[in-house]
Design goal:
51 residues
Amino acid sequence: MTCYAERIAARVGRRAAAALADDGVSAEAVAAGLGTTRSKALVMLLTVHGS
């Protein structure tokens, strides 16, 4: 069950990061909004930017 919940959270995080990246929001702001580290937020932003 936890694995399923983690996959949902990751998908929601990626979608949120994609929307924020489109608006030009910084990695720091994404990290704060998603409750994660700046480096993880940066990876999310770069991942969605490349797709």
